[in-house]
From TrEMBL:
Gene3D superfamilies: 3.40.1350.10
Gene: LOC109476139
Catalytic residues (positions): Y241, H249, K280
GO annotation, biological process: mRNA processing; tRNA-type intron splice site recognition and cleavage
Protein name: tRNA-splicing endonuclease subunit Sen34
Record-annotated tRNA intron endonuclease catalytic domain positions: 213-295
Amino acid composition bias (Basic residues), ranges on this chain: 119-128
Alphabetically ordered keywords of this record: Lyase, mRNA processing, Nucleus, tRNA processing
Task of the protein: Constitutes one of the two catalytic subunit of the tRNA-splicing endonuclease complex, a complex responsible for identification and cleavage of the splice sites in pre-tRNA. It cleaves pre-tRNA at the 5'- and 3'-splice sites to release the intron. The products are an intron and two tRNA half-molecules bearing 2',3'-cyclic phosphate and 5'-OH termini. There are no conserved sequences at the splice sites, but the intron is invariably located at the same site in the gene, placing the splice sites an invariant distance from the constant structural features of the tRNA body.
Organism: Branchiostoma belcheri (Amphioxus)
EC number(s) stated in the UniProt entry for this protein: 4.6.1.16
Length: 304
């Protein structure tokens, strides 16, 4: 039984294995809305929690695959649990400090040539300052003799750090202890840490005829073996995939339309042209009198 958490009207999946199970075994995709631990300040790739659509939640509850728990109230913890959590955070800080040191060592090896060039330039500058200014007058013949050597200067070797210098720099990094604990990531516990049983909460969806139709269409397409995601970006209710969205493009744009609801010709043209532009087939999904879902496909063929 997979645990789903209801928080402020949205349903989330926090457990990583549960999110994998939903996708691999039950064809439930969802949307990741959390930040990655190592890349928290970007929104290109997201991580847990996995947010589910209301239709996905309804399907999982009706099929008995998952249960819905209250995620808005934090669980009660005792003194021993608080000590365990505090120790866990301290251990996490120590591990992150060690990772930070390793990253700095790796950066040190990458910048070794730049550091060596800087040190060589500094030594050269100090040597020029210390050189006595007694070379003011010299014989013309000497200048003529050595002019050829100045015309063809020898190639200087690229400076590099010795093994002893690298060990010295790494030793300085090992002595670094000025890490600020408040600047590191803090792991937030998202599941019950104790074995205290939790009671399931009711799921009040669908509440309208349109929401009920969306749930019926979603379940019918899901039972036919398709993957479904939100279709809001393409002007529909769902995007329908023949396989995992990581491997396939969507074939259909599902638009839920009640059988008694009128539809203007302009809307039909709009949906047909939309599907043609994005190279997908628009499906008009409605419920017939027998309760089955019927599908009408729209394809823009133009005029001859």
């Amino acid at each position: 039984m997979i645990d789903l958490y209801l928080c402020h009207g949205h349903v989330y999946v926090w457990n990583a294995s549960a999110a994998c199970e939903l996708r691999e075994q039950h064809r439930i995709v969802g949307t990741f809305v959390g930040a990655l631990p190592r890349l928290p300040r970007q929104n290109v790739r997201l991580g847990r929690p996995l947010q589910l659509m209301p239709e996905e939640t309804t399907l999982l509850l009706n099929k008995g695959i998952a249960r819905l728990l209250d995620g808005s109230i934090p669980p009660k913890t005792g003194e021993e649990d608080l000590q365990a959590i505090t120790e866990h955070r301290k251990q996490s800080f120590r591990e992150q400090s060690e990772m930070c040191k390793n990253d700095r060592k790796r950066k040190l090896h990458e910048m070794a040539s730049v550091i060596a060039k800087g040190r060589a330039a500094k030594r050269k500058k100090l040597a020029q300052k210390a050189k006595p200014a007694e070379e003011g007058s010299s014989s013309v013949s000497n200048n003529d003799v050595t002019s050829s050597s100045w015309d063809q200067p020898e190639e200087e070797k690229e400076p590099s750090l010795s093994v002893e210098e690298m060990k010295e720099l790494e030793a300085r990094l090992d002595k670094t202890t000025g890490y600020n604990e408040q600047a590191f990531l803090v792991q937030i516990l998202t599941e019950q840490v104790t074995e205290e049983p939790q009671e399931a909460v009711p799921w009040n969806y669908p509440t309208t005829d349109r929401e009920a139709l969306r749930c019926q269409v979603f379940q019918d397409l899901w039972e036919k073996g398709y993957f479904l995601t939100s279709g809001g970006k393409f002007g529909g209710d769902f995007l329908v995939y023949p396989g995992d969205p990581f491997r396939y493009h969507s074939f259909y744009i599902a638009v839920c339309q009640h059988r008694t609801e009128n539809m203007e010709a302009l809307d039909i043209v709009r949906l047909g042209r939309l599907g043609s532009n994005v190279k997908k087939t628009v499906l008009l999904c409605s419920e017939c009198e027998s309760g089955e879902i019927t599908y009408t496909s729209l394809q823009w063929t133009g005029m001859n």
